[in-house]
Specification:
alpha/beta, binds iron/sulfur cluster, ten-stranded mixed β-sheet, 2 domains, 346 residues, DNA polymerase, domain 1, 12 helices, binds S-adenosyl-L-homocysteine
Length: 346
């Protein structure tokens, strides 16, 4: 038994081949356009709805539902059918509503400053598990319309390549989300960036750079040993040439590590030569990395320094910090496992 969101329209039609084609259309419209649960698709007879509910089971069940920023940021911890857990964050702004989805349960990349990386890898998500996160957020966001999807939750989307690309395609085709409003954030899997460029989807690509010299980057992002900065640059150049889209670099500012004047110059050179946008993220605290984030003052100085060197730069606000929902804080894999251990009384 699987989630109804695992299936393409053609696959679903195949599964319901005993029913008239217009039933598939009604179900499809209800699920994807109106974001209804199967039981709410009342254009379909009750008996059939009951049968469909037995045939398809939701992929996600809510373990935790918390919010902050006066309700503007909401985080869910979901349990999957096998007990693995993932997190999804919904962020409501004046001009857009964004969901941040997980692409894997955990992450194998081991970036030192990231809570997901510290917790390790559990497993890949299926396309239905990714899409159900989005549809869950669509329902929670109503009456606002979900406008953006960012693959910046748990996991490395390009290490779950086929699922990521399939989910992106379906969000575009079935939900009508413009590719520009779909963002993939990657730690820098160079060959996968090139492959993604050839998919022909004008998405927004964000590359988590964090350091523009190999020694520091390899310490923060172990994958840099496999795809060092020169190789990453090739992939970025290929992305820009193939898609005609700019890309952005993410840079979590860490005190004394990548917020020095030298780091600023290295970043300006690397990003400037690629015409890339820079997104500065004040480092969010995580239990396994005790180095501090840069002070607010240094974040502003760093931003001004980049601007003075002609770099297009923004500072990302730290939505959801208090509920561990901010960038790099998603780590419920281990926390939940621990909570599920039998409790022994003293
Ligand atoms: N694996 C992908 C996407 C998920 S991480 C990637 O690494 O890009 C999403 C973003 O959060 C990345 O830019 C990542 O570098 C950043 N991040 C991780 N830990 C962080 C932390 N403690 N503080 C701020 N940003 C962090
Ligand atoms: Fe994985 Fe991204 Fe965290 Fe690195 S920053 S460990 S790639 S989720």
């Amino acid at each position: 038994m699987a989630s109804v969101f695992e299936y393409s329209k053609e696959e679903l039609a195949e599964l319901l081949s005993g029913e008239p084609r217009y039933r598939v259309e009604q179900l499809w419209h209800g699920l994807w356009t109106e974001a209804l649960a199967i039981d709410e698709v009342t254009t379909i007879p009750k008996v059939l709805r009951a049968r469909l509910e037995e045939q398809f089971v939701p992929a996600l069940s809510v373990l935790t539902d918390v919010h902050s920023d006066r309700g503007a940021t909401r985080k869910w911890v979901f349990a999957l059918h096998d007990g693995a857990t993932i997190e999804t964050v919904l962020m409501t702004y004046e001009d857009r509503v964004t969901v941040c989805v997980s692409s894997q349960a955990g992450c194998a990349m081991g970036c030192t400053f990231c809570a997901t990386g510290q917790a390790g890898f559990s497993r890949q998500l299926s396309v239905g598990e990714v899409l159900e996160q989005v549809m869950f957020a669509v329902r929670a966001a109503a009456p606002r319309r979900l406008s953006n999807v960012v693959f910046m939750g748990m996991g490395e989307p390009l290490a779950n390549y086929r699922v990521t690309v399939s989910a992106l395609g379906r969000l575009h085709d079935y939900r009508g989300l413009s590719a520009r409003h779909l963002t993939v954030s990657t730690v820098g899997v160079a060959p996968a960036i090139e492959r993604l460029a050839r998919e022909g989807l004008p998405l927004t690509l964000a590359v988590s750079l964090h350091a523009a010299n190999d020694e520091t980057r390899s310490e923060l992002v172990p994958l840099n040993r496999r795809y060092p900065l020169a190789r990453l640059r090739e992939a970025c150049e290929y992305w820009i040439a193939t898609t005609s889209r700019r890309l952005s670099f993410e840079w979590a500012l860490i005190e004394g590590v990548n917020d020095t004047d030298q780091a600023l110059e290295e970043l300006a050179l690397y990003a400037g030569s690629l015409g890339a946008h820079v997104n500065l993220i004040p480092l969010n605290p995580t239990p396994g990395y005790l180095v501090r984030g840069s002070s607010e003052h240094r974040v502003r100085e760093f931003r001004d320094g980049l601007e003075a060197m002609g770099i297009n730069v923004t500072v990302r606000n730290t939505r959801g910090r208090s509920i561990d929902a901010a960038c790099g804080q998603l780590a419920n894999v281990t926390k939940t496992k621990r909570r599920l251990l039998p409790v022994r009384s003293a």
